[in-house]
Design a protein that fits this description.
mainly alpha; Growth Hormone, Chain: A; globular; disordered C terminus; single chain; MFS_Efflux_Transporters; about 400 residues
Length: about 400
């Protein structure tokens, strides 16, 4: 395994930690700055919106530049953003630091996916992307609980200082270990990158990302309420249950990457179908603590098993200029998060109970399954047409030139 993948994973770990650890520190941050819970919530939603902007606008702006220097510059932006957060004297500066860090998020994973795939042979590219995303899953399994613990004991600023240090280590790791792309590969122009979006399969891939990932995240957004109000767990056990969910993410990411290296569309169809069944079963049996624990691990595993395949699929259909499409797919993950969280909130507000976000997530995931089946069928048809055209002259040639006896 190329060591550069470990450096990319470390960068992903820091970025994942920045995104998610604030959820556990929100009460301390709100109290320190004297703002309401709703205002403090913008430190999360503002980050998510900035990820979408960075994934599209920032990636588009740097598409003509060499990828490794751009990735290093993104890590510098990430470091500065977290440093600003650690030193913030008021809420507005804290929010500005969060936005700065978030701008690097989408572009980092978009460009990093392209670099990760370039480090390995074609039949191992999805696995390489999965290794990079392992940093993101590890942030959920280990980083968020320990980051929250650090912030609770030494103040929330200590967590952001720790993330800043992680960013510095990742910067030097990428500098030393990630190879420069081959010199004979000229970077694609912005126009060439935009042409990739003329492919219907690119748009279908992005739609599957929004729906397939959004369904799982919609169920996960309100999971604490499901665990305490429906399953009957004490609130003190929720962090440990979330670690189990994170273990599922970690395993699913690796297994999903290996499966996608064999067949991307088949992996997505099977995994999204199983995820839909898991969400339905979870919603139906959430009153049982044992069934809930099993469903939580499986939801994490199958939910994140889609990620390497989703990222690899959009890059494959935008193969001539994959950087912007890769960044757009990272934005699609965050749009899926927003869609799932919004729809789950709507169902709770409507009085449908704390299992309703899981039912809503199952419905969104089912839509994703329908889209990927349609996209896969269309892709197979388009591959057959050129083959038929190529076969006809070959048959004629065989008729004109007799085989020797």
């Amino acid at each position: 395994m190329p060591l550069g993948l470990i450096a990319l994973a470390l960068g992903g770990f820091g970025i994942g930690l920045t995104e998610f650890v604030i959820m556990g520190l929100l009460p301390e941050v709100a109290a320190d700055f004297g703002v309401s819970e709703a205002a403090a919530g913008w430190l999360i939603s503002g980050y998510a919106l900035a990820v979408v902007v960075g994934a599209l606008a920032l990636t588009a702006a740097v598409t003509r530049l060499p990828k490794k220097p751009v990735l290093l510059a993104l890590m510098v932006l990430f470091i500065v953003g977290n440093l600003v957060s650690a030193l913030a004297g008021d809420y507005q500066i804290m929010l500005a630091g969060r936005i700065l860090a978030a701008l690097s998020h989408g572009a980092f994973f978009g460009i990093g996916s392209v670099l990760a795939a370039a480090m390995v042979p074609a039949h191992k590219q999805a696995g390489a992307i999965a290794i990079m995303f392992t940093g993101l899953t590890a942030a959920n399994v280990l980083g968020v609980p320990f980051g929250t613990l650090l912030g609770q004991h030494f103040g929330w600023r200590s967590t952001f200082w720790a993330i800043t240090v992680i960013g510095v280590v990742a910067f030097f790791g990428i500098l030393a270990l990630v190879p420069m792309p081959k010199r004979d590969e000229a970077p694609a122009s912005l126009l060439a990158e935009l042409r990739a979006f003329r492919s219907g399969q690119v748009w279908l891939s992005i739609a599957v990302t929004v729906l397939g990932y959004g369904g799982m995240f919609g169920a996960f957004t309100y999971i604490a309420y499901t665990l305490t109000e429906v399953s009957g767990f004490a609130s003190t056990t929720v962090p440990w249950l979330l670690i189990l969910f994170g273990v599922g993410l970690l395993v699913g990411n690796i297994v999903g990457g290996k499966a996608a290296d064999r067949n991307i569309d088949r992996t997505l169809i099977v995994v999204i179908a199983v995820l839909t069944v898991i969400l339905v079963a979870f919603a139906a049996t959430a009153q049982s603590p044992v069934a809930t624990v099993i469903a939580l691990v499986l939801m994490g595993g199958f939910g994140f098993a889609t990620v390497p395949a989703l990222q690899m699929r959009v890059m494959r259909y935008a193969s001539a200029a994959p950087t912007l499409a890769s960044g757009a797919n990272i934005a699609a993950f965050n749009l899926g998060n927003a869609l799932g969280a919004w729809l789950g909130g709507v169902t709770i507000t409507a009085g449908l109970g704390y299992t309703s976000p899981i039912w809503a997530g199952a419905a969104i995931t089912l839509l994703g399954l329908i889209v990927i089946i349609g996209a896969s069928t269309a892709a197979k048809r388009s591959r057959r047409r050129p083959q038929l055209l190529q076969d006809e002259p070959a048959d004629a040639a065989r008729q004109e030139i007799p085989h020797p006896v």
